[in-house]
Write a structure and sequence with these properties.
With 313 residues, this protein is mainly alpha-helical. It has one domain. The chain is 78% helix and 0% strand. Helix 3 packs across helix 9. The longest helix is centred in the N-terminal third of the chain and has 29 residues.
């Protein structure tokens, strides 16, 4: 395996771990009194500032007018719709429903990659996605067994659209991602996202200074911005530049594993055979998907099997 591919897998694993930690940390911030809209706009605007500062030390790149428009739509799909709709959906439905719906991301991504990128839906890839989804569902349901509160149809639909939005971003904008460096892409995407989301969060943001939040809450909010967003999105882009969209989306299943591990470490949960089996299914599923053949590999094999096909055209 090439070193670049290994780095891509490690980057996605790191991002999955950071997002897995962000769930309990973000929940703690919300419980401390910060609204979900305030936390979301702080996350977007804070990340935008970090990426603009980081771009000062990165090579300067000129973006074409067409690509600026594409970056705007990429920001809508990757950040505004994905994060914003998920927050609204989570406020209407139960955390159990929202967690279960996130397991649909690799499935949706696999279908969209087949439609837009002509990536084959192979038995190996389907097996890996199903294994990962089964493991994630077992883990989520075991974590929330006996939890009170039901779902809401509209909340569930918003969470579904949020997953479809991110899956569209992974597939449609793969070519755009390859053309520019990480800081060039993210500084504009998070700037666009902040401008788009600000009208929805303005009232909550203005009320934030009057709230008495503890230092712990502000440090947790800083984690959401710096690690759960800034560094995590850098790592995702590193992985996205080298790996296929379905493989990138499979690392979404790392989040419930990390969330479970944290809850066990801090004494809020236990780790038994069920969770061990679920975790094994998740990582087996990720591995199986990485072993599936890409479109380029299948075309190369077909060319070897029919060496005279090119000359006969």
């Amino acid at each position: 395996m090439k070193l670049q591919v290994v780095k891509a897998h490690l980057a996605l694993l790191g991002a999955g771990c950071m997002w897995g930690l962000m769930s309990p940390i973000g929940k703690s911030v919300l419980d401390a009194g910060m609204s979900s809209l305030s936390l979301t706009i702080l996350r977007m605007a804070g990340a935008a500032v970090c990426f603009w500062l980081g771009s000062l030390f990165a090579p300067r790149e000129k973006i074409s007018g067409r690509d600026r428009v594409l970056l705007f739509f990429a920001a809508l799909l990757c950040i505004v719709f994905n994060q914003g709709l998920f927050v609204f959906g989570l406020s209407l439905t139960s955390p159990v429903d929202a967690s279960i719906i996130t397991t649909s991301l690799p499935i949706v991504t696999m279908v969209l990659a087949a439609l837009f990128l002509k990536e084959p839906i192979t038995p190996t890839k389907v097996t890996g996605v199903v294994l990962g989804a089964a493991g994630a569902l077992i883990l989520v349901l075991s974590n929330h067994r006996g939890t009170a509160g039901g779902g809401n149809v509209w909340g569930d639909l918003l969470c579904v659209v949020a997953q479809i939005s991110f899956a569209c971003y992974l597939t449609i904008f793969k070519g755009l991602i390859a053309r520019y460096n990480i800081f060039t892409l993210m500084k504009w995407m998070f700037t666009y996202a902040s401008v788009c989301f600000l009208p929805f969060a303005y009232r909550d943001l203005m009320a934030l200074p009057s709230q008495t939040l503890s230092m712990t809450a502000w440090l947790e909010a800083a984690y959401v911005v710096l690690f759960g967003t800034f560094i995590a999105y850098i790592l995702v882009l590193v992985g996205q530049k080298s790996l296929r969209p379905t493989i990138v989306s499979m690392y979404n299943y790392v989040q419930p594993v990390v969330g479970t591990g944290v809850s066990v470490l801090i004494g809020l949960g236990s780790f038994g055979w069920t969770k061990a089996f679920a975790s094994l299914l998740i990582f087996t599923g990720v591995y199986v998907v990485t072993r599936s053949k890409s479109r380029q590999q299948m075309l190369a094999e077909q060319a070897k099997e029919t060496p005279g096909s090119e000359s006969g055209r």
